[in-house]
Write a structure and sequence with these properties.
By secondary structure, the protein is an alpha+beta fold. It has ten helices and five strands. It has two domains: about 110 residues, no CATH class; about 160 residues, Reverse transcriptase/Diguanylate cyclase domain (Alpha-Beta Plaits). The chain is about 65% helix and about 10% strand. β4, α9 and β5 form a beta-alpha-beta unit. α3 runs parallel beside α4.
């Protein structure tokens, strides 16, 4: 890379050296008048072109490098840290613009390094945020969704079902005699039962569209949409049967289902739907426990009666 001194020396050599060399040649051949005329023309041209020449020299010596530095600064402002200057080895007597470029290169490297560290920290923060959000929606013991998340998603699923005129179902599940199991076998056995029930729920429902959750204590549930009557009963019966077969202490489940087909066009609100599921769960326990009871919404029942009539 050509230094500032070398560039300025070449410019001055061109401006002064060529006319002087021409005059020497003219004098050598005895053409004094032509040499004098050339000297006068050179002085006139120098006076006339003094300002444009000065601007050209300033551009070649200073402005061009300042423009490159400004372009680098704009690129850094826009997040581009790839435009480092190609510079010679550092010397003690180098021009201030060269030193400025060298400092800009160091600054560019520092900015790029800090941006890389910030991006890494941001990635960790976003990953931790996603993990905290996931944990805030999950029940710590069983790994299914917690009640807070159920309340949040229930309104959204119900509204989506209304909009699409799709079916929706709420399954409520209660572990029969859970308090007695805790008192007889200890809380560790009780926790193992709850863990097993959570595992059964997660593997028995549709992963993409159903929401298994812990309602509180030994009460669990599943929120489903876009499902037909027979498939719904099959899922509920599978949960009940697997729990009865795979758990000790003769533990069983009472299951109540609130169901709206969607075609009736009369969706209950959230509280009414929960009450309907509670009624179905109470009916399951009243009839002897360890069974599935389904109740349809009033509009579905009315539509079914009209068909029979």
């Amino acid at each position: 890379m050509m230094s500032m001194t070398t560039r300025l020396s070449l410019i001055l050599l061109v401006i002064n050296g060529l006319p002087m060399a021409a005059e020497v040649l003219l004098l050598e051949y005895g053409r004094r008048e032509d040499a004098l005329t050339l000297a006068v023309l050179w002085l006139v041209a120098l006076l006339v072109l003094l300002v444009p020449l000065a601007r050209c020299i300033i551009y070649l010596i200073v402005d061009r490098d300042l423009q490159r530095i400004n372009r680098m600064c704009r690129a850094m402002r826009d997040g581009d840290c790839s435009g480092a200057f190609a510079l010679p080895l550092e010397r003690e007597d180098e021009h201030e613009l060269i030193r400025l470029k060298r400092h800009m290169n160091w600054m560019l490297h520092a900015v790029a390094s800090r941006e890389q560290r910030l991006q890494s920290c941001l990635h960790i923060v976003m990953r931790n945020k996603q993990e905290y959000q996931r944990l805030s929606t999950m029940d710590g013991l069983t790994g299914v969704f917690n009640r807070g998340y159920f309340e949040e998603v229930f309104a959204r699923v119900l509204e989506e079902a209304r909009r699409c005129r799709d079916s929706i179902a709420l399954i409520l599940i209660d572990c029969d005699g859970f308090k007695q199991i805790n008192d007889t076998h200890g809380h560790q056995v009780g926790d193992e039962l709850l863990l097993r029930l959570g595992s059964i729920l997660k593997t028995s429902v549709r992963e993409s569209s159903d929401f298994p959750f812990r309602y509180g204590g030994d009460e669990f549930g599943v929120l489903l949409s876009g499902i037909d009557h027979q498939r719904l009963l099959k899922i509920a019966e599978t949960i009940r049967a697997r729990f009865e077969q795979d758990t000790p202490c003769d533990a069983t489940l009472s299951v109540g289902i609130a169901f709206c087909e969607g075609s009736c066009g009369g969706y209950p609100d959230e509280n009414a739907f929960k009450r309907l599921a509670d009624e179905a769960l109470y009916a399951s326990k009243h009839r002897g426990k360890n069974q599935v009871v389904l109740k349809k919404c009033a509009q579905c029942e009315a539509m079914a009666q009209s068909r029979i009539g």
